[in-house]
Design a protein that fits this description.
eight-stranded mixed beta barrel, alpha/beta, TIM Barrel, single chain
Length: 235
């Protein structure tokens, strides 16, 4: 009996460890719909390591809580990234102008995200998407992460052309059937410090936070030291 109890306790410990490992690195994404957030309380959840914050949408929409959320989350010790909600109604250049005003490279811990929602469907205008991805990469020095649904991924992004992009998949019904780096697995999560629902995200088991962190800026080369003047004194 003692042996059986010990074995049972070991199995329970292993199961508990496995469950903890599964949720060891989670993140959330927020916008104005979460209202005022107590980031100190959010950060007390040791499984939550990062947050993506809505910054912009289309040509002129800017999330009114963006700056407050950005500062609050970073102060609480969370890694922070920003996302732009794509619009099929305006050009890539117009949208990039809006992004540039809000999303400052120096304030980003994580690679920016281009959010492409399912309602775009057949009128996604891939040339515009490609141009915006290009402009964002030029601005931030890294390929942006593409957030989308599995349906849109299979229709538009499941080609060799996008293999170098990290994919952020939204699927609330089960484990994604497409490749992904980030998985938004629920839109009805609960978190201390946030009233109402919040989206929860987790990394693929083959990826880590380092894969979505902004690259460290290269150190500027030191100016060459001027040659010392020749000693003109006579000996």
């Amino acid at each position: 009996m003692r042996y059986r109890c010990s074995l049972l306790l070991l199995l329970l410990s292993l199961c508990s460890f496995g469950a903890q490992a599964q949720v060891r690195t989670r993140g959330i994404d927020v916008s104005k719909y979460q209202g005022t957030i107590n980031w100190t309380k959010v950060a007390k959840d040791s499984t939550i390591k990062f947050v993506y914050i809505k910054a912009t949408e289309g040509t002129s929409i800017q999330d009114p809580y963006y700056r407050t959320n950005l500062k609050g989350a970073r102060k609480a010790g969370l890694l922070v990234g920003s996302y732009h909600l794509y619009s099929s109604k305006t050009t890539a250049y117009q949208q990039m102008g809006n992004i540039r005003k809000m999303i400052k490279k120096s304030e980003q811990d994580l690679v920016p995200v281009l959010d492409i929602e399912g309602h775009h469907s057949g009128r996604l205008y891939m040339e515009r998407v490609d141009k915006l991805l290009e402009l964002m990469e030029k601005e931030y020095g890294v390929k942006p992460i593409i957030y989308t649904s599995e349906r849109l991924y299979k229709t538009h992004f499941a080609t060799k052309k996008y293999r170098k992009y990290h994919i952020f998949i939204a699927n609330y019904r089960g484990y994604p059937t497409t490749r992904f780096t980030l998985w938004q697995y629920t839109e009805r999560g609960h978190c201390s410090g946030i009233s109402g629902y919040v989206d929860f995200n987790r990394l693929h088991r083959n990826h880590s936070l380092s894969d979505i962190k902004m690259p460290k800026p290269k150190p500027k080369p030191k100016p060459a030291e001027a040659a010392a003047p020749a000693d003109s004194t006579t000996k």
